User: Which sequence fits this backbone?
């Protein structure tokens, strides 16, 4: 059986390191940090790690809000494709900095890109 992307990049600890570094970058960026003001940062880290782990094939069950609903407030604040692009760049940079191989980063970024329309409210899950 083939390893999941989650396993091949290093599992839980590697995902947590990427998420931690991602949020350092996000909170330092004036273009996107305002979307996260007043948010429970510890909970945010936990939910993001859980979501990314699940997305990459880890045996993790994401128990947070539907991602469309979770980003509703950010959309009200004006989150758009340009902001989403910045967030993707920060996640890519975090993955690079923690030493994830380029071919794996490409796959991860494609999976994250696949969430764009739901995050930006252009579509929703059918079971909502």
Assistant:
């Amino acid at each position: 059986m083939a390893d999941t992307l989650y396993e091949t990049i290093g599992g839980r600890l590697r995902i947590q390191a990427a998420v931690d570094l991602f949020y350092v970058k996000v909170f330092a960026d004036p273009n996107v940090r305002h979307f996260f003001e007043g948010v429970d940062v510890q909970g945010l880290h936990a939910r993001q790690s859980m979501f990314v782990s699940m997305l990459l094939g880890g045996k993790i069950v994401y128990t947070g809000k539907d991602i469309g609903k979770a980003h509703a407030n950010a959309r009200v604040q004006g989150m758009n494709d340009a902001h989403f692009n910045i967030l993707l760049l920060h996640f890519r940079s975090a993955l690079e900095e923690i030493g994830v191989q380029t071919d794996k980063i490409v796959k991860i970024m494609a999976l994250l890109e696949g969430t764009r329309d739901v995050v930006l409210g252009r579509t929703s899950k059918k079971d909502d």
About this structure: The chain has one domain: 5-119. Residues 92 and 106 are 9 Å apart (CA to CA).
